[in-house]
Amino acid sequence: MATLLRQARLDMTAPWACNAAAARVSLTRAIVQIAGSFSVISAPRFELATKHSAALGGANFSYIETLWTEAQQNAACNAIHDGSSRLCRWLLQCADRIGSEHLLVTQEFLAEMLGVRRTTVTLLAQELQKRGILRYSRGRITILDRAALEACACECYNVVRNISLGAVPGVSRQSQII
């Protein structure tokens, strides 16, 4: 599973992997984690735009590579790191994406994102709250001590963040974090 940045592209079907005459079917499922606005462009129009703009095509290719790298890193992270480290990583990545330390997210959703039980999320969030790192109440999380949260996160946060920072040229550092 990978998450998308604010400037994201769904249906990551690579144009070179398909027969142009064949119908394309997306094998992805998109979940909106945090409310916001978005724009839509049809796949054929987007593909045409990437063919006519080397810059857009290059940025799209870099984005796809970064997304795949993040998915691989997340798979490894889920296999080797504990729930607390993964929760901290996920909260940091989410805060980076929306540019805010205030997150609206349920325990049920966090449990799904982390691959743990809802009760596990409750216990992990309570511990972070007791340590003064965050405040959590009824689907509202506020990061109170970002440095402490980063110290609790696994190294995957910085690995993905550093890879992502170089992924989309011309986009601000805050917007690039995947």
Summarize the structure.
53% of the residues lie in helices and 6% in strands. The protein has 178 residues and is mainly alpha-helical.
Helix and strand topology:
Layout: H1 43-52, H2 54-80, H3 83-98, E1 102-104, H4 107-114, H5 118-130, E2 134-137, E3 140-143, H6 146-152, H7 156-165, H8 173-176
Antiparallel strand pairs: 1-3, 2-3
List how many beta strands DSSP finds: 3
Biggest sheet strand order reads 1-3-2
SS element count, helices: 8
- What is the share of helical residues? 40-55%
Secondary-structure-derived class: mainly alpha
CATH class, named: Mainly Alpha
Radius of gyration: 18 Å
Elements, N to C (H/E): HHHEHHEEHHH
Average pLDDT confidence is: 81
Q: Top keywords for this entry?
A:
single chain, about 180 residues, mainly alpha, Arc Repressor Mutant, subunit A, three-stranded antiparallel sheet, 8 helices, 3 strands, about 5% strand, disordered C terminus
Account of the 3D structure:
Helices cover 53% and strands 6% of the residues. It has 178 residues and is mainly alpha-helical. The chain has a single domain (1-178), classed as Winged helix-like DNA-binding domain superfamily/Winged helix DNA-binding domain (Arc Repressor Mutant, subunit A, Orthogonal Bundle). Strands 1-3-2 form a 3-stranded antiparallel beta sheet. Strand 2 (134-137) and strand 3 form a beta hairpin. The protein is elongated, with a radius of gyration of 18 Å.
